[in-house]
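Worked Example 4.2. Consider the chain below.
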Amino acid sequence: MTKTKKLFAVAAASLAVGVAALAWAPLESLADPARDAPRAERAAAEGVHFFRMLEEGRSLDRPFPEKVGAEEELDLNLYELGNMLFFDPILSGDNETSCAHCHHPNLGFADGRETAMGFGGEGVGPEREGGVPLGRNTPTLWNAVYSHRQFWDGRAADLAEQAAGPITDPKEMGQDPEELVEELSAIPEYVSLFERVFGEGGLSFENVTRAIAAFEEQLTSQDSRFDRYARGDREALNDSERRGLAVFRSLKTRCFECHNLPTFANPEFKVIGVPPREGGEPDLGRGAIAGEAYNHAFKVPTLRNIELTAPYMHNGSLETLEDVVDFYADGGGRGRGFDIPQIDDKIRRFDLSWSERQDLVAFLRALTDESRLPVPPIGLLSGLEPVAYSGPASPLTPAGPPSTAAAGEARAPMTHTVRPGESIQAAVDAAEPGDTIEVHAGVYSETVLFDVDEVTLRGVPDGDERPLLDGLGELSDAIIGSGRGLTIEGFDLANFTANGVMLNLSQELTMRDLRAYNTGLYGLYPVESIGVLVERCEVTGARDAGIYVGQCKDVVVRDCVATGNVTGIEIENCVDALVEGNHVSDNAGGLLVFLLPNNPSKVSIGCLLRDNVVTENNHVNFADEGAMVGNVPSGTGVLILGADDVEVTSNVISGNKTCGVAVLSLSNLIQKRKAGGIDVDPWPDRVWVHDNELDGNGLDPDQQALDLGLPGCDLLWDVSGEGNSWSEAEGTTTPPLLPSPEWGEGKRRLFRRAWRAAGA
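Applying the procedure from the previous section yields the following structure tokens:
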């Protein structure tokens, strides 16, 4: 591998530092960022949309996204036409198969088969036989209208385009569009219904698919027991299901990172490594549609009504939900002998106890809601026999979540007291907005699940002793949940396997005076939240980041101590963050400001790092195998990766053996690690590094950096991005000359051109 490729391999992992001397070959990241302006614009627009969704949501009760390609308003005549067509076998070439044969209402609008059976098949569900076998499992139609693309490989943009695919595919329904229109035109009742909806001459194949899509658009599931719980009914989930929700949200399993609320799906295509069925060939998935960068990537399916749609995965190879949990616990494809490139870095092996496994499956079953199950037509206008149907049915109801029951009268705020031997969770369950929970010094071994707003959870010391949440090396998280106006302060947290405190989908969240020791992957982990304050906290022993703030807006991390972690403090894909007054030492990497792809937030804008002490971050990197941070060379002080509008000032940055401050692009070759490559603007723009105290950085670069030919120094830049500036009185630099704020665009352009020429 050439030095240039090695450099990009590091940048592709999003975690290396440095660039080579001027004699190195020109870097692809030096290309004019304007060529990717559309990508930057898309990322910015998605970033605005994402944070608006966070601001509009209430903890777990998130607003559903807009329906994709849907009719502007519900037309009952159009819906009824679609309902009739959906169940009518006239849509198939032999008049034997309807849409409902493979998307059956009794089977979660799937078919209960491992892989679908197409043209010529007889029967319904697992007993269907005699037809053309197809290669993939039938996806559910529940909430399909919220999906950004249709089919496992995303080849259709919306439900209307999707409907056309099976009808015309000779392996599925085998119908010729013109012949279908002729058949329908011979049925006066159909002609009349089409004209009522579309006007004279409205019977066309395009309107057939439009009508079917209009029917499918109403197949929404938004009133499961989980939804009632999210809207404030705390009795809607039983204890096992609530514990399962905690497991679902835990960084141990990372389920929530791909199955995002409220759809429990994701607009990305992910590689998880499901092996082909015995004797079968590997399925390229999205790669066959969008190119090699997406090989083996598939759409993230919704988990709503998941208990109704077994078997699972794109090839139906996993029979039960328990099998699915075991697959992920084994590390996905890596644990099943199918360790293909690009498996998502979030797919890692984890250990679940028997009870945790049962609780997680119980929670998944609490996502079931068939309250909008449609009423099929009693008879078909074609006179053909409809697919067999039985089971509960309800008429079409207005779109949108139902209203919640009226709440009782609010009582005055109160203080709940918890003493050793008592349950913190019991106090949280009894709390109402405005309450305070005081936990007295002692040892408590439990995971505390938070889903209540405006509550303070406060540790009450007894001299030097503080309340300790002890996971005993077995429990996943100390505190996990969501809420608005939460304050958690005054606790010690130790010996958990995933996190100390993990709170997501929250607003106005404060973590104060917490000490986390050996809490697994992360010490403190606020994510997808608005208004985050982390102050006077101490974290050590985290296998990823001591303090991680991800996909958040309006963030302050101050006066904290992070030592002995893989990385000290990490700000990832956030907007408007202040990191000040922290002491970060003896980590593999100190302060990190990242923009990484394939996350809900597509931007990292506006981070100020000031008055921090970032010293001797030379700890051995002990990250989990396959973790992105495993590529951080020991000795990294401050790393700015792809982030924009970052200011690094008035910090003491010393003794970091590989580098002091590095500013890097994500690089184009990150596509080799992520399905589909980069969905964010990869260039770090308008980074300003100035007036820091730099001393003794880069004197003994880590072997991982040396293997890549990377020199050690105080300041490193890969010459990517626009408007980046340095104003430092001292310090070694690569390249030897760095732009100052006084440089105009012309001088900067000449500088980049000279850099390329030097490497030519």
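Residues 1-57+506-760 form one domain. Residues 1-35, 391-407 have pLDDT under 50 and may be disordered. Compare this with Example 4.1 before moving on.
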